[in-house]
Amino acid sequence: MAAVFRSASRRAWNRLPAARTFTTTTHRTSLAAVARSSNASETPLFANEPAGPHVKTSIPDQASQKAIAKLNTVFDTRSLNMLVDYSKSRGNYIADPDGNVLLDVYAQIASIPLGYNNPALLATAQSPEMASALINRPALGNFPPHTWADILETGILKVAPKGLDQVFTAVAGSDANETAYKAAFMYRQQQKRGGPEVEFTQEEISSAMENHSPGSPQLSIMSFKSGFHGRLFGSLSTTRSKPIHKLDIPAFDWPQAPFPSLRYPLEEFAEENAREEERCLQEAERIITEFHNPVAAIVIEPIQSEGGDNHASPAYFQGLREITKRNNVLMIVDEVQTGVGATGKFWAHEHWNLQTPPDMVTFSKKAQAAGYYFGNPALRPNKPYRQFNTWMGDPARALIFRTIIQEIERLNLVEHTAATGEYLFAGLERLSEQYPGEFQNLRGKGQGTFIAWDSPRRDEVLKKGKEVGINVGGCGETAVRLRPMLVFQKHHADILLDSFEKIVQP
């Protein structure tokens, strides 16, 4: 397997497009000027948005400071990034109460797909169907609306990953992951009993009420170092990104495997990265076969987002899928942040070209809804009320996702994002050549606008971003991450690149 993996991994990296380089400062400047001139005339994807950012005061200034002080008396504001006037935010631009307008490439932590105050979403929000969903919010497991199957089939299931034709809807990303974990555990024990028709024993029933085995078995979900899967109890036990998320919270005895630590540019370190991925695969299989609490499933992000925007090759994920199949372990792909077009594919795991699809794929954020897709009927619990809560998702959010899907198709936004991402990455490559100390380990080539790099003064870069008119986010310890909306265009990229150049200039 090792030799096969090395060969496959080399091929995967070698297929990546070559880096675009510029030889002199003069050449860079002329190309940038030509690009700006050309892109200024491109057809807007979002009508009536600002022509560019406008910063007239400090952030936060008096109006924001007053509102923040009031809010702080009733709500914890210590994680506040900026106060927003959503009534004045449009498209790719976010406004504050003091009249500042920023180009937003953080997009509510990657969760706004079509721009602020999108007219298609506004029309859906004002429809009688939405009004009914909001004021008559159903307990979906017990009292679903008579149109629920149609809503799912024309929306959420219309974009289901290949091979996965069923969905369990949820409220948020953490909820989606936790219900997927439950499905994995129930499936594992159902297999152990001999099938869905085999009844629970009296010992299982009584011991479950005491939180003891065999009713509460000592099973586990394997996650990966630096991964993030949520902040609820089960999802938090698989989150490995930052200690602050986990401190003081009891956790399950579940294992973590190493995630590849790659070197950049990828083209220059293909052999070294292939060895690193092979090492991680071998360790993952060792943990699966040896960990004292049997592993029912693994959960992994296509790109580790909160943990620092960490990438791996398609060959690595193909190898991981082979390991799970060989060891009868389910593969859960967490597409909460990577899904819905941001990487130039509707689902990021489509980049992997897997021979067999993942067992479950979780989603949220840009979908504005949440849940997990699955295909194997045996992943549906053998009895009612085993995978259940009052809401089990929200028809209102499913209607919004349906409109998002329609707009993505109408405007060809997945392909658009792939092209815009290529343009943006080339510009960032230019900056990384000009300012190598400021743009380190640039990553995300061929992954749409899902781009990041490491900065030795990351927090200062984020702060200065607002001063020059951009709202940008970070992740991990040193990474600057870009999470533009799907309606982000090349002229927005030009503004962003110019802004970063202002930030890093001495």
Summarize the topology.
Blueprint: H1 2-14, H2 25-39, H3 62-72, E1 93-95, E2 101-104, H4 107-110, H5 119-125, H6 128-135, H7 148-154, E3 166-170, H8 173-193, H9 202-208, E4 220-224, H10 233-238, E5 256-257, H11 270-290, E6 295-300, H12 314-326, E7 330-334, E8 360-363, E9 370-374, H13 395-411, H14 413-434, E10 440-443, E11 451-454, H15 458-468, E12 470-471, E13 473-475, E14 479-482, H16 490-504
Parallel strand pairs: 2-12, 4-5, 4-6, 6-7, 7-8
Antiparallel strand pairs: 1-2, 3-9, 8-9, 10-11, 11-14, 13-14
Helix pairs in contact: 1-11, 1-12, 5-13, 7-13, 11-12, 14-16, 15-16
Protein described:
A seven-stranded mixed β-sheet has the order 3-9-8-7-6-4-5, with helices on both faces. Helices cover 39% and strands 11% of the residues. The longest helix is centred in the last third of the chain and has 22 residues. It folds into two domains: 179 residues, Aspartate Aminotransferase, domain 1; 255 residues, Type I PLP-dependent aspartate aminotransferase-like (Major domain) (Aspartate Aminotransferase, domain 2), CATH 3.40.640. The N terminus is likely disordered. It is globular. The chain is α/β, with parallel strands linked by helices. It is built from 16 helices and 14 strands. Strand 13 and strand 14 form a beta hairpin. Helix 11 packs parallel to helix 12 and helix 14 runs parallel beside helix 16. One of its GO terms (cellular component) is mitochondrion. It catalyses: 4-aminobutanoate + 2-oxoglutarate = succinate semialdehyde + L-glutamate. Its EC number is 2.6.1.19. One of its GO terms (molecular function) is 4-aminobutyrate:2-oxoglutarate transaminase activity. It holds the Pfam family Aminotran_3.
